[in-house]
Each structure stands twice: as C-alpha cells, then as structure tokens.
Amino acid sequence: MRVPAYRRIAADLADKIREGTYRPGDALPAQRDLSARYGVTLMTLRQALQQLRDEGLIVQQAGRGTFIAPVQAAYRVDTLRSFVEDLREQGHDVTTEVLSVSLQSEPETGHPALRLERLRSLGGRPVIHQTSWVPEPHGSRVHGETFWLTSLYAALAEAGVTIVRASERIVPGLLEEPIAGHLQRPAGGAVFVSERTTFAMDDKPVVFDRAVILGDLMEIRAERAATRLSLRWRST
C-alpha cells in the first residue's frame, strides 16, 4: 500500500526533529521552501505540518512561521528538592553554569551572606536564572563548593544544616536586563518569578532564592494528597 506523500514528509521531518537536526525552538524553513525541497504542492506540505502539529512536535505562530515545539519541563511545588533534582528525575539533561559566587551584604537585611548566581540550562538552552543568598554563618561554610557539580542543598547538608521547610511564592513577571541577556531572550517577555525562603530546624532562614523561569519552556505542577495540601491559592 502506497503511503501518502504528506505522511512520508511528516515522518521525515519528525525523524529530523528527534535526531536533533531541528532543535526545540528552532524555526522550520518557510513552507514554500519545504514544498520545493520535497517536490510537493503547498497543500500537501500543509497536510504534513498539520500531522506534526497534532503530534505536538511543532507550533505555528501567525505571521512568524513554524517552530519546533519547546520541551515542556515541570517544576513541582510540593517538594523541598532543588530545581535540578526535579528536572533530572523527569529525564531532562540539566546543566548549571555558575555566573558568580561571593560574600556580600544581603540587600534586604544588610547582613553578610553568600551570594550565588547560577544559570540552569535544559538540553543546552538556558531556562532558569537563579540567585541565592545564604546568610552567615552558613554562607562561609559552603563558600568553597563547586556549585556547578554540587547542589546548594547538598552542600548545606554536608555542612550539617538540616532543612525542614520552605515558603515559596510564584508570580508572573517581565524579563529584565541583565537576566534577559543570560537567558538569551529580549527584555519585556513574560516569565515566572519564584521567591523561596528555606528554613532549618531552628526555624531560621538559611537560603533566600529568586528564580526567573521562562514560562514557554516550563510548567508549574502541584501534587495534592487527601491528607495534605501542597499548593495554596491567594488572590492579590
């Protein structure tokens, strides 16, 4: 049985997407160029693109073109784990670039603290910019860590700090410089902003985190159980 031309084209493009010829977020060539490349009419080419869209492999934006669908990763709000631990558990290739690490005065309190600035990339694409403040005395204890290999939570645990809870607030925001440059996006785009305070057993804060998350590459997920509530909604 002969396979329709649009299905052969869709299969070929799908193979190229999965092999990495076209990566998440990349633009496909213009439809006229693709139809000429495959030797078919625009109608046949559009049938192939429709199949890829139905499979979730591409997205089409009016006036802009056709793009490879971004990888959607979930950030869970019901755990005390780090971003990286959540994402790696889901099978994502996550890398961390340490942009800066130094002992400074924490802006809100003026107290000495370790400032750690990191960039998280997913499959080679930057998706999260994270700034963490660790007040003294814990900041000095973890100052020498190689944070591109070791998570902040793991470093604190090795320093004898037991984390028991965290309070987190996630709000929509707009991308600003210089973070926009780190995330390779134009300023003004919509993002999620996570502000998390993590507490030790003595109920004193040990980490203040602010993370800027690209909303088109991440989704936020909450897990609920009958005996507990992991996410609260609050009107502003």
Descriptive report:
- It is built from seven helices and ten strands.
- The protein has helices at 5-19, 31-38, 42-54, 83-89, 138-141, 152-158, 179-182, and strands at 58-61, 65-68, 73-76, 94-105, 112-122, 125-135, 163-174, 190-200, 205-214, 218-221.
- The strands form three sheets. A six-stranded antiparallel beta sheet has the order 4-5-6-9-8-7. A two-stranded antiparallel sheet has the order 1-2.
- Helix 1 packs across helix 3 (42-54) and helix 2 crosses helix 3.
| Strand content bin | 35-45%
CATH class of the largest domain: Alpha Beta
Q: Round the mean pLDDT to the nearest integer and report it.
A: 82
Structural domain tally:
2
- CATH fold-level assignment of the largest domain: Chorismate lyase
Question: Shape, please?
Answer: elongated
**What is the N-to-C succession of helices and strands?**
HHHEEEHEEEHHEHEEE
Distance between the termini: 60 Å
Name given to the CATH architecture of the largest domain: 3-Layer(aba) Sandwich
Total number of helical segments?
Answer: 7
Helix content: 10-25%
Classification by helices and strands? alpha+beta
Adjacency order of strands in the biggest sheet: 4-5-6-9-8-7
Rg result: 22 Å
- What oligomeric state do the depicted chains represent? single chain
